[in-house]
Amino acid sequence: MIVLFLPLFLIFLMLSMPVFFGMLAAPGIMLWLTDSTRDWALLYRNIYNGIDSFPLMAIPFFMLAGELMNRGGITLRLVDFSQSLMGHLKGGLAHVNILSSMLFAGLSGSAVADTSALGSMLIPAMEKNGYKRRFAAAVTAASSVIGPIIPPSGIMIIYAYVMGESVAALFLGGVIPGILVGLGLMAVVAALAKREGFPVAAERATWRERGKAALRAFFPLMTPVIILGGILGGVFTPTEAAAVAAGYAMFISLFVLRTMTFADLPKVFTKAAITSSVVLLLVGAAMAFKAVVGLSHLPELLAAWVIGLTDNPLILLFLINILLFIVGMFLDAGPAIIILGPILAPIFVDLGVHPVHFAIIMSVNLTVGLATPPMGLVLFVASSVSGERVETIARTILPFLAVEILVIFLITYFPPISLAVPEFFGFIR
Predict the structure, then answer these.
(1) Looking at 248-405, which runs of residues are DSSP E strands?
(2) What is the per-residue pLDDT across 335-376, written as a single tens digit (0 to 9) for each?
């Protein structure tokens, strides 16, 4: 009977109960109904234990680094650099939007931060340049999912923590998939630009102008180099890398670029703290949820059921992608990874799927869910920034989602896309 906490949890979600409370209420009620109140201690104990982790300290530091970069006007420098490279193309500002998302992904690792920071700047600019506002909002939402795929990535840190994988291996595994998503979105823009006659944003920049734009963006673009270089070189751990990234962002904003003052810091720290608290509370609740999942023997039951369908891993991977895509429509990526990772990953690892490969499949799929109707979080953020209705953005984003789904299946059935880079650097043997 305890297994019924899962449908109860889904009912709570449909009733718009906050995910944090739903994760605790559903198992708590079922433990009470099954007279297992002695196991209630698992809930509140695991909330604290789930948060009390050194690797998870990377999340607030990366959040802080993203806020410092955004507040310091660094986003504008990335947009200017992107425009110098792609502004002369048909549909130039849409291409600039996507390329800026790819560059910003190396700074924040957050889809929501990407949508908010770039959307507030590029959606009005695209509308002024002749694009429909709903299209500008859809491009921003679709490209923002690159944020948690290209390193650093908050959800990959969570996956590595829950499943005991290497953060560096997952970060490297996300590089090629993130680039593929960006190129796929640009291909859609190119096709639509030819059909709809999208405008050119600016004249082709000279190499001198591109060089100036690159110099202005040099210090921000060094952030992912410092993060990945330090981790791969064994100079610091991913958690220490996040702290270094935050310190670097503060230093260049205050003293090098001088785009921020000490008076701005309280607001930056407050916003980063609130965002981090939400994420970490969800992680704590999800770890408590995971403990009750173990008590219910659900993983074993689900594994037996899945393997009973077919023993062909290719078909199972197809089915699991469909499942993850549906889950991603309703549940945020972080909680979904913590809940489903311990259930699904062992099944596929036993079937011969590499743990890092499955981690990337799951992370990318659930990240795309952030832009998928009806509950995709970045759709609501894009709606808030643009003033367009969520339903309107959801209809316009469909061609972009189709390409992102295609990339998910490419990642699924061609493991080298995920494994080549971490294998090259010696994180997979």
Answers:
(1) none
(2) 788 778 888 888 888 888 999 999 999 999 989 988 887 667
